[in-house]
Predict the 3D structure of the following.
Amino acid sequence: MEENVSEQACVNTTKYADDCTMDTSIRTGESSDLQSAPDSVQSWAVENKMELNAKKKKDM
């Protein structure tokens, strides 16, 4: 699963027992790219009939 998400959304994934975290970085001034990774992950989840837990999402 995480390989498919990583390829489509250009994010790094780390798998835990029953969870998966995703992270990516953007360059200063490229804030338009900030939304592209979550959008890609959401699209992947919809295509694969999965639901993301929005309560666990955070930006740093």
